[in-house]
Amino acid sequence: MAQASDVPNTGIENSQPNLPFDYKSRTLTIDFSTEDLAKASNGILQQYETSFPASQFAPSSVTIKGSCPIANLTLLTSFFLASASHNARFESVHWTSRFPIPRTIISALEAQASVYHPAPRLYYTIDFWHQYNESEEESARIHEQRLSVLASESMYALIVKITYTEKMNLRDLDFVYKILRTCRELRVLELELEHVGCVYGGATPYAFPFRVVPTRAGVGGNDHDIGIDVGDGDGLTAEWLRQYGVVPNEKWRFPPLSKLKLSGYDLQENSDGGYAWYWRDYSNYSQEWDDWALLEDEETEPPARPVRMEDDGVTSLEMWLRVMDWSELGILDLSNPSGETLRLLGGKGVLPGLEHLALRGGEGTDVLGFLSGMACERGCLKSLELRGVQFGWNKKVEMSLIEILVTKHPGLKRFSVGDGKANGQFFSTDSLSNLTHILPLLESIDVDIPRPQVGDDGNWGWNWDILDPFLKVTNLKEMTIRFPSPDSILARQGGIAIGGMYSQIRIQYHEGGDEVDEIDPIVNRETLEALFGELRRRKRSVMEEGTELENLVVYVGDWDGRYERGLLLSDNALFRVSLWECSVNEDDLEVCEGKQTRVVD
């Protein structure tokens, strides 16, 4: 990072030596995560208001994160307005704060979009987790403010997680749908839907309402002319669409996405999006039912529930295929895809530009069929991730996958395959060796491997029969290896999850925490730095002209699921999990940084 003396004196960098601004990349981070950080960020914004730097030294990328109550959004808005008046050009704005983006900031970005090409790219990350103490009025107010981004020419990427509870929630997924309907420059969508808690009861949709859902007054219809919305059953009236620059009598389209990641979205739901949408105008239904019950009048009809339209036999995926050009999609990431979903997406001409594919879950036979039948019109996959797919590992399955890779996807540069949870789906040593021969362009490999066996005397060693074949891949720069938790062995022996032993570990862990917990004897900082150094040495010895191994990433157990809670005690509660990342520092020394913790119980 450049020092203040390396750039012209703007009055900012000298008075704020710890300014979170990278002069080399011209990246500014405004962090409202804590009160101290928010105070510092408010001060930085105040300095920008006092003296905005010349355009060549102004930020080109800005990140806004955190939502501390003392954050000064007025100063933040002034910063964006000042950037426009000083001809500063933002290449990207990353907004991860829970605060809705003020309309004035969107307008400032739109002003840049009208002058510069390409326009500023807005990366908008929203975690829809509604606090239990948040009133309906507060939720509605925040939602209304979020609508500022609709029809924005700067909206480039939308990353959304919607967490459903026992309450009705149609608002959040409807918001995502409206962005797709109005933001023509959107190219990236990551959408995760999940339910937490043990109570189901509220209307919570898992698919878009492509087909107009009738209102309580009966307005709406089941017409498949998706360009005409005669009612407000899906919240998109003709007047509303005109307000955001969408002509209702035209054949509307989703923007042509280049990246699509879906988790929890039901692609096989009916085109109406599911029964949940029919409750849009029934928010007071529970009260109406209670009022009716108090009448104790047998002649009075109870309040009517919404009636779902007849199934038209068209799925959400089929509607999505109609309203979006999928030929530009280069990255596709799906969780638990059904066989029918893979069959439709594997059709000729559907995904001609797909280069990066990740499938998390699903049936192995369906996945193998999809990979085998892909029409590679612009060259086949460069990156493939298969995590948690139900292959039922055996020699036949391994050989089928290897045959598909060698015949259809020999140009893979990144390959990841494994269990996805316990890290317990192991390729045979022979199959791993074959992989390194048939994928000569590999730059990154990610696989599950067994933990080394510990002898009765406590001695153990790395299994070089598994690791050595990877080192013969000329271009390999990164290895990711995943081990089962050391506690999974205890569990198989009737240990950690059984009564007294579990209770003892739980008490010790909650008293001392990670800092005093028992260290994994095989996977820790010391052993991994030694392993990384030996891997690099061995690769140099077998491939004198090959690429150096630059990174080693090691997972132990279900690291990504360490905070997942359920009603019942999970099978891996209190298992040790860890993540370690190893690289080479400026002194050419192998260093590993990481953390061990336990799965929340």
Brief account:
The protein has 601 residues and is of the alpha/beta class. The chain has helices at residues 35-50, 73-85, 103-113, 136-146, 171-182, 238-243, 285-295, 316-323, 339-345, 364-373, 395-408, 429-438, 464-467, 486-492, 499-512, 525-542; strands at 21-22, 27-31, 61-65, 92-95, 121-128, 155-164, 188-195, 259-263, 331-335, 356-360, 383-387, 414-418, 444-448, 478-483, 551-556, 576-584, 590-598. The chain has a domain at 4-295.
Largest sheet: 17 strands, mixed
Which word captures the global form?
Answer: globular
Distance between the termini: 42 Å
Share in β-strands: 15-25%
Q: State mean pLDDT (0 to 100 scale).
A: 83
SS-derived structural category: alpha/beta
Count of DSSP-assigned helices: 16
Helix content: 25-40%
Number of strands: 17
**From the alpha-carbon coordinates, what is the Rg to the nearest angstrom?**
27 Å
> In terms of per-residue confidence, which ranges show pLDDT below 50 for 5 or more consecutive residues?
1-19, 219-234
What does this structure look like?
This protein is α/β, with parallel strands linked by helices and 601 residues long. The protein contains 16 helices and 17 strands. Helix 1 (35-50) packs parallel to helix 2. The two termini are 42 Å apart.
Question: What is this structure's SSE topology?
Answer:
Elements lengths: L20 E2 L4 E5 L3 H16 L10 E5 L7 H13 L6 E4 L7 H11 L7 E8 L7 H11 L8 E10 L6 H12 L5 E8 L42 H6 L15 E5 L21 H11 L20 H8 L7 E5 L3 H7 L10 E5 L3 H10 L9 E5 L7 H14 L5 E5 L10 H10 L5 E5 L15 H4 L10 E6 L2 H7 L6 H14 L12 H18 L8 E6 L19 E9 L5 E9 L3
Parallel strand pairs: 2-3, 3-4, 4-5, 5-6, 6-7, 7-8, 8-9, 9-10, 10-11, 11-12, 12-13, 13-14, 14-15
Antiparallel strand pairs: 1-2, 15-16, 16-17
